[in-house]
Known about the structure:
This protein has helices at 2-30, 35-49, 62-91, 97-111; strands at 54-58, 116-120. The chain has a two-stranded antiparallel ribbon with strand order 1-2. By secondary structure, the chain is mainly alpha-helical.
Amino acid sequence: MSCLGNIIWFLFAGLWQWLGWTLAGLLWTITIVGIPIGCQCFKFARLCFSPFGKDVVYGGGAVSLLLNIIWIIVSGLPIAITAVTNGLVLCATIVGIPWGLQCFKLARLAMMPFGASIVRI
């Protein structure tokens, strides 16, 4: 069932989410200092291809908090707004609620990507 959910996800919201994370990763990777941040973006861009059957676990310490603050100011807000907008549009239909919830999961991730890890359920 998660395979079907991931296919429908990619058609309606996953491509746009993937583009946002990949663009942010490319922009961060252009700078030498931003390469670790860009690698984190690419890790979460892979999540945007198939979010069903995976979950995000949050953790981290002081360094993660500092990076999350910098991230929100520079790149996190546009990605989070895009994910929330996609989620609201998908939740407007009853059939799209599961995909909308995945958008909200990615919106939360867009606000706090550092210290987060992806686990299979």
